What we know:
Layout: H1 60-76, E1 77-80, E2 85-89, E3 95-97, H2 100-118, H3 124-139, E4 141-142, E5 144-145, E6 154-157, E7 163-166, H4 181-191, H5 196-212, E8 223-227, H6 234-244, E9 249-250, H7 253-257, H8 266-269, E10 273-277, H9 285-300, E11 303-306, E12 314-317, E13 321-326, E14 347-351, H10 362-371, H11 373-383, H12 388-391, E15 402-403, H13 405-411, H14 416-419
Parallel strand pairs: 1-4, 5-7, 8-13, 8-14, 9-10, 10-13, 14-15
Antiparallel strand pairs: 1-2, 2-3, 6-7, 11-12
Amino acid sequence: MTETPTTTPGRENRAPGAYRPPQSQHATQNPRTSQVGQKPAEEAKEPSTPPLGISPDWSKEIQDAARKMFDHLRANYVFSRDKSSYWRRTHDGTFAQTPQEDLKRHLMKEGFQVMAQMVPGQIGSARLFDEAIVFLQNHCFVTSVFNISGHRPGILRTREGKSVLVPDGMRPLNPSPGDCGETLQFLFDLLGESQLPYFLAWMKAALEDYASGKPDGWRSSHMLGLVGPAGCGKSMLQTLISEWLNGGEADPYDMLIGSDRGRFNQDLANAAHWRMEDKAPIHKMSQRLSYSENVKHCCVTRTLNIEAKGRDKIQLPTFRRLTISCNEESEAQTNLPYLNEGIRDKLIILQCSKVGTLSADYHANITRFRNEMPAFLHYLMKEHVVPPELKEGGERMGFREYINPDICLLYTSPSPRDRTR
């Protein structure tokens, strides 16, 4: 009779090919995922403003044509007051900055030349172009322009009455049915059977919120901590998280430890994945407690005070998910938030084991997982169901916290250096 090998949480014996995703008869499409691939958000409707320069002597046909022309301007062109710049909607719904001399060429191609020829008195295209510029500056303006994670291209209006153009915005996720066996096997080998459900729940919630493009519906989130030996695959998982969230990542470490004064943070505003790895140990207890409070704030709030060169500071909602990876040594784990009751429920801390199926060729590994990305997104967003036991007590974030017991013992006690500070 063969003995069953013993395991510890997060350290199961993992034979290659052993993991298969659980199947559920109750898997349903989350209504949030119906937002995937929708058209860019429409700008808020405004009352129609009579176009400048329309003469009451013109025929109804010409007046109607002029109104259509200026409605076209309102829908497809924006003037930014902070930089005195013009932005034009492109074929894919994003906005491209357009110098004023180029603006005229685009307007001529879009019918302004024909309009100029229709108007009695031969006012000409130059006069009509001047009218268009004045109209844009008076009726189609925004306060500033920022690329902000989690928002579709278009105009965002703040509670303070400011309007912000998001020119590029989030790209749609493209889930598609298919085989994601290698991705799931990698996650199983790295995290083990007992920890994997927590990661899948964390990733599923992130994808659903990101795909919705609706800040008011974004949930608070856990910080994901990955602890394991060097070269085990934890950095690869962080890279995949960035890929699954459309590639944007930035390092928030300086902001979290309070050493970012005077620095611009546009990179954080535009990144869905706030990624930290292999940071220097934090020995001062006061600094570690401050760091932990900042982590907690980032997990439970949606807004960010954005500072960019040459622009006024502005507070806007941004989508982000926070991760950190570190080695197993107790010194390295001082980069994890200091564990107390105020932050415990904001953390998912997982112990990682070395994955033997990764090759030495980084690009080959990434290519392999990228090929499965549409299928993995489809599995998580439309098939995977978070186990009910994970949801108990975790309604605010969609599921409850988890801290691997072995890691908890290592990093909750202050080191000798900490006790003196």
